[in-house]
Specification:
The protein has one domain. The protein is about 60% helix and about 20% strand. A hairpin with a 2-residue loop joins strand 3 and strand 4. The chain starts with a helix and ends with a helix.
Length: about 140
């Protein structure tokens, strides 16, 4: 019964710019499962050691959840600039939510807040693409 209570709760992991950041406790199970599934699908030609595979799977999964967090932080930063008080950011197993005390004052403010998350995700994807291409070199791609 205690386990059921644990999975219905959220854990405060940080405060960013005074905004509480919480993790839904069910995310820990998904984190483990995604790490294992990622590790299982790594070809033996790339990594042979099962522990190294799990570590790689864990790092990949943590980067995935970091991208969700940064997406929600993008919404929160623009909401703060629009003079909205951000109650909290909660990371769920398959997404996140930035909660505000009240709705935006205008449609323009709501649009800026809404687009901030996808814009952050896009910038993050460009960053990861650049990090991937850097060792390869652009000359070898053409």
């Amino acid at each position: 019964m205690e386990l059921v209570k644990f999975f219905k709760k959220q854990t405060l992991i940080a405060r960013i710019f005074g905004i509480p950041v919480r993790i839904d406790n069910r995310l820990f199970v998904v984190l483990f499962l995604m790490s294992v599934l990622t590790a299982i699908n790594i070809p033996v030609t790339i990594l042979e050691d099962p522990l190294a595979k799990f570590f790689f799977g864990l790092m990949t999964t943590l980067l995935f959840f970091l991208s969700i967090f940064l997406h929600e932080l993008g919404h929160s930063i623009i909401a703060y600039r629009e003079e909205l008080e951000v109650r909290e950011v909660v990371l769920y197993p398959f997404g996140g939510l930035a909660r505000f005390k009240r709705p935006p004052d205008s449609a323009g403010a709501e649009f800026r807040i809404a687009i901030a998350g996808p814009a952050t995700s896009f910038l993050l994807s460009i960053t990861f693409l650049a990090a991937y291409l850097l060792p390869i070199g652009l000359n070898r791609l053409c």
